[in-house]
User: Fold this.
Amino acid sequence: MRVVKEVILGEIRVSIFSWNSKYIFKYELGPMEQTFKVSETDILEESELEGFLEGEFLEEVKQRFEEMGASLLRKLG
Assistant:
């Protein structure tokens, strides 16, 4: 597994890996994690990976973390 990029976006840590002809995007926030696997054939150049670190996609990741956190708090609390 090759680490392509690691970055911190606010409170979210993002790691991008290349493995088994796929890009793996791992988003981490506290005890929660979201992972997406995308075929390398769907991304023509590594510069296109930036699209997973900004805009609407990242906003949806943040919203999902809020929902996950609320679910966890309800279960624990």
In short: The chain has a mean pLDDT of 95.
